[in-house]
Amino acid sequence: MTKRFSVYIDGFNLYKGTLEKRPEVKWLDLTSYAGSLNPSGQLIKVYYFTARVKSRFQEDKAPNRQHSYLRALENSGVEVVQGKFHKSEKWKRLVSPDRERLIDPNFHSLWGLTQKLINQSWSKSHPDVPKAQVFQFEEKGSDVNLASYLLRDVYSGSIDEAFVVTGDSDLVSPIKFANQAGIPTHVRVPGTGQNMNDLRSAGCSLKPVDVNDLKNHQFPKNIVTPRGGHIKIPDSWS
């Protein structure tokens, strides 16, 4: 009997864990990739959980790139489920007094003045450490949405198997509940730097996302929509 399965993708976790530093695989066709997770099964639905990013600085093109990608996903039949993205200003303690590790991109040192001023700030803050005012970007709601959609499909009987693409240990409980309900739920973890121990105990099987495999599941550089429109890959990704 052919197994019906759906795939639930934690968009920001996938991006940060695997795609961020690899522009050659960012134009990822998630329907094609999802189908490869169980070639003999019947793919019911691909869900992509994300939030609309906000500009980090003037002339920031990230929101435009994301808009093009979400259009490409929706055109391919992926259901994009959106949470919220918050941008706020926070005071954060510095990790290092070393200019080379503190500022990116690096400021040129003016006869040592840049480092000298940093050192003075560090000294005057003793025994605490100096703080810097920074923008803080937080994605809200995607993990709750993913858990809700997964358990809805599990308990409605609409799937026989599930794949969850995430490295977020906050999803351990819903994955465990899905398995306990008799629906094998497999985890694919983006990147190798995430803690897999908790997810390994909850998932039916756990494997890292294979970056080389993602190269086999890319959209065409120019997508023609059913209405004759065009969705083009962002320039920095091509």
Question: Topology, please?
Answer:
Elements: E1 4-10, H1 11-19, H2 30-37, E2 42-50, H3 62-75, E3 79-82, E4 84-93, H4 99-102, H5 113-124, E5 131-140, H6 142-156, E6 161-165, H7 172-180, E7 185-189, H8 197-202, E8 205-208, H9 211-214, E9 222-224, E10 230-232
Parallel strand pairs: 1-2, 1-6, 2-3, 6-7, 7-8
Antiparallel strand pairs: 4-5, 9-10
Task: Kindly describe this structure.
This protein has nine helices and ten strands. It starts with a strand and ends in a 6-residue tail after the last strand. The chain folds into two domains: 4-88 and 138-237, Rossmann fold, CATH 3.40.50; 95-129. The chain has helices at residues 11-19, 30-37, 62-75, 99-102, 113-124, 142-156, 172-180, 197-202, 211-214; strands at 4-10, 42-50, 79-82, 84-93, 131-140, 161-165, 185-189, 205-208, 222-224, 230-232. The strands form three sheets. The chain has a six-stranded parallel beta sheet with strand order 3-2-1-6-7-8, with helices on both faces. With 238 residues, it is α/β, with parallel strands linked by helices.
